[in-house]
Structures are given as structure tokens and as C-alpha cells.
Amino acid sequence: MKPINVGLLGIGTVGGGTFNVLLRNESEITRRAGRPIRISKVADKNLELARQVTQGRAVITDDATSVVTDPDIDIVVELIGGCGIARELVLAAINNGKHVVTANKALLATHGNEIFAAAQKKGVMVAFEAAVAGGIPIIKALREGLTANRIQWIAGIINGTTNFILSEMRDKGLPFATVLADAQRLGYAEADPTFDIEGVDAAHKLTIMAAIAFGIPMQFDKVHVEGIARLDAIDIKYAEQLGYRIKLLGITKRVSRNGADGIELRVHPTLIPSRRLIANVEGAMNAVLVQGDAVGATLYYGKGAGAEPTASAVIADLVDVTRMHTADPEHRVPHLAFQPDALMDTPILPMAEVETRYYLRLSVSDQPGVLADITRILADQHISIDAMIQREPGEGEEQTDIIMLTHLSREKHVDAAILLIEALPVVKSRVTRLRLEELDK
Ligand code: NDP
Ligand code: HSE
Q: Could you say which of 107, 162, 198, 389 would form a disulfide bridge with 227 (CB–CB 3.0 to 4.6 Å)?
């Protein structure tokens, strides 16, 4: 059987893993795909690296354009990363009638609408399983496995670096900077780790999942993004005492208010009950919880990064494209799960309109009447308290911490209450505000 020819752009961590797994499992993959999948050409700036990995089994070049214009190449795999040259190469490949497989979440979250429109016009596929949660087949699950459902919400630990940092801070009491250095050494972090710790990488992945779950365009610019850099170890400890763990979650929800739908799209540190399975996802592992109206809650767990776990997803896409490339484009699964002319312009809700529960930590003077002042402000803003702890002041200490968990409240009311509380003379520092999700319905 004639092999399908693949051109690989970038043979770094994921590209190298893809080359090796494809070679190691060649016969198994061929039996599944129906014909051999052969990486016949590799482009990388680092020719020495390309030589070492390919060992003479593919033509190598440092000119990526020569791959996307090569008439013998059927599928281009883009594993360079970023939104510069990668965008140009992907669009050039599509314009040359090539199918594309990519793991590049930044590219799809920011330029996906342009890329999918170009692919639609040319009748080619752009497959991107590896772009979200590495080896976990979450794109397949959302696009195909759950297709009967009206998806209600998704909450995911979709960045391994930050989950690793939070786990190590909680378990070993290590400071943030030390654990971040470990995450970089272990190869979990992006080239620029601020993408991980500021929540940007998770926001890219959330943008892609929300588009597929709700049938909306990619809207990365509308994601509310807060990372973990300002998270204090003391809050991890207090959360634990209250029966919660703090995770960096990407959350997207469909909400109906006054007969109109809106979509929440947010990444932030979140308290979740310790008894939930997802609260126990530790280290660099990823997990995505999806709530559909028919199926209920489903949970997907596995390695969200690394050479071979990510290669597993890249190769799954290669097999799909190999099976489907001769099919009429009408018979393929649409890129964003919904037919392109059926995408909706459901508005993304501003953060001020989001309704959730809150964790508030206040540092106050240890004197009578303080609590009454604070609870009055909260009540005036329609915020009711579900649980509270007050730390006993230490010997000679004049200040103490009050920690409150609220019932469901509107973000704008919490913002207003915090401003008023911080203006009280008895309140000695900024109020720490974290969001809390029960994740039960
Ligand atoms: P790497 O940096 O390890 O590999 C990228 C390779 O592309 C490098 O060898 C780089 O060379 C090369 N390259 C850069 N520019 C060009 C160019 N113009 N032409 C040819 N080659 C070029 O990245 P990763 O493998 O880690 O990531 C690849 C993609 O996969 C990214 O989009 C990333 O976000 C995504 N991803 C990564 C995961 C992971 O675990 N690493 C998990 C999921 C997705 P040089 O180093 O010399 O610049
Ligand atoms: N830096 C990313 C993470 C790599 O930590 O999850 C996988 O996308």
C-alpha cells in the first residue's frame, strides 16, 4: 500500500516524540490507518538535531517553506510553536492543498478563525488533538463522543506546570520560585514560563474547548485570565482547613438569564472540594471535567505534556486524516464540531456578571465590632456567608485573619464589597479574593 507522506515542521520535544513513536509502532499504526504513514521530510532550524533524530530515515532541511510547497507531501505537521512563522507556514500549507496537524494552542486560540476558514475554503483538514491537554483525547471526546449533548460546562486542570507548582507548594511547603525552577528543569514549562504561571497557556486551551463545546468562534481576547503568581501559601493552608484544594482551573459555562444565553470564559485559581476526583489530580497531570445534559459529568485524566504523550495525540490525528483525506469534505467531522454556518454569536459574559462562590481573607485589628462592620457591608451587597474561620491572634499580636466562604454571589457585588471593606480603618491589608466552585451540577 502506498504510504501517505508527512512533512514535519519542528523536530524538538513533540516533533522528536512523534518521529520516534511513529517509527516504534509503525506496524500497529499502519494496521489501524489502512496504509503506512511516513514522515518523509523534516524541517528544523537545528539541522544537527534533525539528523540525530531521523538517522537518515527522512530528508532534512532548514527551509520549512520547501516542505509546505513540496507536491509530494500530503500532510504537514506543524510543531514549531508560536504565532509568527507557524501561522505563515500553516496558511501556506493549506493554500497548497495540504492537510495540517498541529499542537499549537496559541496559534489556534488567536488565529484559529482565519485558519479554519482557509481550510474550509480549500477542503482540507486541520487537526489539533494535541493542542489541548496533551495526550488526553479531549478534542475527540468533545467533538464526537459527546455530540448528543448540550454541553453545560467544562472545568479543567489544563496546565501541567501550574498544577505541579501548586501540588509541590501544598505537599512540601516549598516556595513558588523554587518549584517553578523545578518545573522548568523537568521540561513542563513553556519556553516563556509566564505563559504558564499567568494562566495564558490555560486560556489558549480553554478558548479551543469552549469553541467546540458551544459552537462559537475562537475568542481568546474575551477570556478572563488570572494566574497563580500572586497566590499566597497561607491561602492554600486555609483552604485545606475548610475542606478545599486550590487548582488553576479553566472554566467555561453556558448560563441562561432572562431567557438569553451567555458564556463564561475564565481561568483563575479556584477552591474545589477536596473530595472531588479532580481536586486530587496532582503534579503535572491534567484533567478535564465535562458536564453534558444527557451524559452528566465525565472526567478525562492523563499526561498533559511531554514528548510521547503529546505525540500520541499528534499521531491519532495523522491516522484520522489518513483515513478521511479521500472522503468528501461534507462527510468529515467539522473542525469546531458544529457546521461552519451554524456557529453562534452567543455573547461572552463580562466577569462582573459571573456568579460563583468566593473565598475572602481579611487581615483585621483584633477588636470588638470588626466582624459586625464587615458582615453589614456584605449583606448590603447581597452577599451571604456560608462558612467562616478566625485565626486566634498569637501572643502580643494585634492583628488576625478572618476567612469567609460566601454563597453564590455576583462578581460585581463582591468587587463593590471589597472596596468598602478595604476602606474600613480596622482592615489592615488588601482583601484576598479567590473563587470557589463546587463542580457538582
Ligand atoms: P520545541 O521548542 O521543543 O521544538 C520546536 C522546534 O522547532 C525546535 O527544534 C526549533 O528549533 C524548531 N524551529 C523553530 N523555528 C523554526 C523554523 N522557522 N523552521 C524550522 N524549525 C523551527 O517545542 P515543543 O516541541 O515543546 O512544542 C511544539 C509545539 O507543541 C508548540 O506549539 C507547543 O505549544 C506545543 N505543545 C507542546 C507540548 C510539550 O509538552 N512540549 C505539549 C502540547 C503542545 P530551535 O530550538 O533551534 O529554535
Ligand atoms: N506548558 C504546558 C503545560 C505544556 O505545562 O501544560 C503542555 O501544553
A: 198
Is 205 an annotated catalytic residue?
A: yes
Cβ of residue 198 lying under 6 Å from some atom of ligand 2: no
* In 284-385, alpha helices (H): 307-324, 370-380
Q: How confident is the model at residue 173 (pLDDT cuts 50, 70, 90)?
A: confident
Q: Ligand 1 center to residue 10 CA distance, Å?
A: 6
Beta bridge partners of 257: 260
Asked whether the whole model's pTM tops 0.85, one would answer: yes
pLDDT for the residue 428: 87
Cα 371 to Cα 276, 389, 423, distances in angstroms = 32, 11, 14
What confidence score (pLDDT) does residue 260 get?
A: 85
- Chain centroid to CA 11: 23
Would you say the CB of residue 201 lies under 6 angstroms from ligand 2?
yes
pLDDT for position 397? 79
Residue 330, Cβ density class (10 Å: 0-12 exposed, 13-18 middle, ≥19 buried): exposed
Mutation test of ligand 1: which of 41, 44, 102 has the most ligand atoms closer than 8 Å to its C-beta?
44
